[in-house]
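Thread: NDP complex, take 2
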Amino acid sequence: MSRTLKLNNDKELPIVGLGTYKSGPGEVIKAVKEAIDAGYRHFDCAWFYGNEAEVGKGLKDKIDEGKVNRHDLFITSKLWNNFHEKDKVVPMLKETLDNLKLDYIDLYLIHWPFGFKETASLWPVGEGKSAYSDVDYLETWEGMEECVNLGLTKSIGVSNFNAEQIDRLLKNCKIKPVCNQVEVNPNLNQKKLIEFCKQRDIVVVGYCPLGRSEYAGTPGFPDPTIFDPKVIEMAKKYNKTPAQIVLNYLISLGISVIPKSVTKSRIIENIDVFDFTLDPEDVAYLDSCNKNQRVCPLSMFQDHKYYSFNSEY
Ligand SMILES: NC(=O)C1=CN([C@@H]2O[C@H](COP(=O)(O)OP(=O)(O)OC[C@H]3O[C@@H](n4cnc5c(N)ncnc54)[C@H](OP(=O)(O)O)[C@@H]3O)[C@@H](O)[C@H]2O)C=CC1
Ligand SMILES: O=C1CO[C@H](CO)[C@@H](O)[C@@H]1O
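Output below.
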């Protein structure tokens, strides 16, 4: 099984990356270093996560130590929703680069297709429509292209875009998006969107691959498949863990996955997923788990003009 996916600009994306959302102070630096030691080269970051400076410190320590070269790393970050105006994109990426202590990143994404006003809060729940900005993501994309032209990022892409939004972007861009980062786990296997993206030479990166297991039991959140008794049984059959079963299944869909962990044993476990193949009946069971339920529907913003999850995919 290959460990990288080729992007439409010929760059290579390591299939398993480390997620960093909610990786807290003091723990994310440790997680980044343990991940590099375990063989991770792909790190998923975002300005919104508020921890890029600590991620950057972990990366720099490992580069200074001689454990890894900058050019072997694949670092992703994302533009948050309050900064969708074209002229804000380059300054926001420069802020991310300062935090990460890097001269360039490998991939910059529009985090969501919908924008908020810069004066609104970062998570403007309850602030009503007056918090929304109607800046078109096509305008934002021009700022993203500028980031490539200035050498601040090697590639650009989108996150949480639906099929129609992707096609609209493809018709109006100078530089093609290399990826669409969306939620993918057995409860939401995104087969139609993955196929749609594949036909357009766009790689899907799957977030919440483990169903954000810390939310298990929270009303309104789908039960993570890693706690499904059948998946626990399956794990015993392959001498693997339920998380490894789920990650192996997701990789077999042709996507990249970015499980988050700050636990050393899990960090190691989550990248040790390439040495087995699931039997057809096990794949069939995991396929049958698809319920189209999201961990991250962001339905509080569903009245936004550019909200993405009102259509089938
Ligand atoms: N583009 C976007 O809009 C979004 C992007 N993302 C990105 O995707 C990443 C992953 O998604 P995330 O929401 O974090 O959810 P995940 O599905 O990656 O789940 C993370 C949770 O699973 C636990 N966990 C990790 N490994 C294992 C394991 N082997 N066995 C059991 N439990 C495990 C972690 O615990 P612990 O850390 O304590 O080990 C944590 O509680 C994010 O961190 C972020 O980088 C996420 C959401 C939206
Ligand atoms: O990246 C992210 C992490 O999860 C959040 C929701 O809980 C998302 O809003 C955000 O896009």
